[in-house]
């Protein structure tokens, strides 16, 4: 089910190449379909959105925009234990993200010069939430809470209706506790296009966030520039670094926690102990029997899973930094000592009792993370993802007089005489 690789420079490189191909392959056919959907929605608005909803979901929902009373009723009727769990998670997520909030500044200088930066939340943000079999209330929390903390004035949520045309009640509960402003029952590329351009009913937004299938991801990619997006998310990933002190039961469980997302998710163990590798493989075979998404896990591990045995922790760290995984678990003796060397990862989980699902649901850091090696240069979703900054400049005549010769010199060196003239006419 999951292969064992003894690292020799070539064997693991060949496997990583397979994983990378999964990330870089593009589906031209999907791109063409999505482009057609985008153009139709831009031209025909709600009419096009409803046509695609009928085509892809089988029937139109009872209502396009979910009434406030329906959202309130979902919260009132929800399982109390579930609501309490969401509220507990919300408290942790809010506490972590409040610490990210950036302040503007004013920098007064000599001669009456005032420089500064103003920071404020975006006007309106669109949140895409899968609503079928892959309905994730936790994603509502992870996207909406930092947006609220950033000062976003309005959050518009789009989510596909269920097969019976009704909204997923768990999604509505999460929307209610997070303070989502409006909810529309539509999904797919057509929902992304509606948010980007606006329709008669769905308002145009400044940024679109949230996970989705390949059609949703492609639509976000094609519309980037018309609207801002969080990131183009690829398949889920986990890399576990472990030594002989790790518990194979924990490793096996954590690898499968990501493999169950998708048949093209990757789950990789890099260990300094062949014994740990062998026992982890046995644990996977044992634990998988009782898991509901057994078939998905098996396909994922067979294609993109591996237990790699390397010579030393330094080698394992080098592999991790090269792969730049979405989730990185460090199950080593005294894992904190390695934190300063782990440069490329979306989120890092340290120790035996910090499994990846802890980050997905509860601990506080955001679970919207860069994938496909983009953790080399991208960061997790944060409060700063929902803000914009403007610098401001005030110069007195005296201050500009002192600076004018330098400005004119540089402008004329660049051949931009109108720039230079803009300064000269003032003196």
Overview of this protein structure:
This protein has 427 residues and is α/β, with parallel strands linked by helices. It folds into three domains: 165 residues, 3-Layer(aba) Sandwich (Rossmann fold), CATH 3.40.50.1980; 185 residues, Rossmann fold, CATH 3.40.50.1980; 30 residues, no CATH class. It has 16 helices and 14 strands. Strand 4, helix 6 and strand 5 form a beta-alpha-beta unit. The longest helix has 19 residues. The radius of gyration is 25 Å and the shape is globular.
Strand order of the largest sheet: 1-11-10-9-12-13
Instruction: Kindly state the number of beta strands.
Output: 14
Order of helices and strands: EHHHHHEEEHEHEHEHEEHEHHEHEEHEHH
Give the distance, in angstroms, between the N- and C-terminal Cα atoms: 78 Å
pLDDT < 50 stretches? none
What radius of gyration results from the CA coordinates?
Answer: 25 Å
Number of helices: 16
CATH architecture of the largest domain: 3-Layer(aba) Sandwich
CATH topology of the largest domain, which one? Rossmann fold
Secondary structural class = alpha/beta
């Amino acid at each position: 089910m999951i292969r064992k690789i003894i690292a020799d420079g070539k064997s693991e490189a060949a496997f990583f190449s397979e994983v990378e191909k999964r990330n870089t392959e593009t589906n031209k056919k999907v791109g063409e379909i999505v482009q057609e959907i985008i153009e139709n929605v831009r031209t025909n608005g709600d009419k096009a959105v409803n046509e695609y909803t009928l085509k892809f979901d089988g029937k139109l929902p009872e209502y396009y925009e979910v009434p406030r009373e329906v959202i309130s009723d979902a919260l009132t009727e929800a399982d109390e234990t579930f609501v309490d769990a969401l509220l507990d998670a919300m408290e942790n997520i809010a506490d972590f993200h409040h610490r990210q909030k950036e302040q503007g500044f004013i920098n007064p200088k000599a001669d009456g010069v005032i420089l500064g930066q103003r920071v404020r939340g975006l006007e309106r943000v669109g949140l895409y939430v899968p609503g079928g079999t892959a309905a994730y209330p936790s994603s509502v929390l992870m996207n909406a809470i930092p947006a609220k903390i950033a000062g976003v004035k309005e959050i518009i949520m789009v989510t596909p209706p269920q097969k019976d045309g009704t909204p997923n009640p768990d999604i509505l509960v999460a929307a209610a506790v997070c303070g989502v402003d409006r909810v529309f029952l539509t999904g797919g590329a057509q929902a992304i296009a509606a948010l980007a351009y606006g329709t008669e009913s769905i308002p145009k937004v400044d940024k679109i966030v949230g996970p989705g299938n390949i059609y949703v991801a492609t639509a976000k990619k094609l519309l980037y520039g018309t609207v801002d997006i969080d990131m183009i998310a690829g398949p889920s990933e986990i890399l576990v670094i472990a030594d002989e002190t790790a518990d194979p039961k924990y490793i096996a469980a954590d690898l499968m926690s990501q493999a169950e997302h998708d048949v093209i998710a990757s789950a990789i163990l890099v260990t300094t102990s062949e014994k740990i590798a062998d026992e982890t493989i046995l644990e996977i075979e044992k634990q998988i029997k009782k898991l509901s998404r057994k078939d998905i896990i098996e396909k994922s591990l067979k294609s993109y899973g591996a237990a790699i045995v390397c010579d030393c922790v330094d080698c394992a760290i080098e592999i991790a930094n090269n792969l730049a995984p979405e989730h990185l678990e460090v199950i080593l003796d005294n894992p904190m000592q390695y934190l300063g060397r782990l440069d490329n990862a979306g989120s890092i989980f340290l120790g035996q009792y910090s499994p990846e699902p802890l980050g997905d649901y509860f601990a506080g850091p955001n679970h919207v993370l860069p994938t496909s090696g983009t953790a080399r240069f991208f960061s997790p979703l944060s409060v700063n993802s929902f803000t914009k900054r403007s610098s401001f400049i005030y110069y007195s005549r005296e201050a500009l007089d002192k600076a004018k010769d330098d400005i004119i010199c540089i402008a004329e060196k660049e051949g931009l005489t109108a720039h230079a003239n803009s300064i000269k006419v003032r003196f």
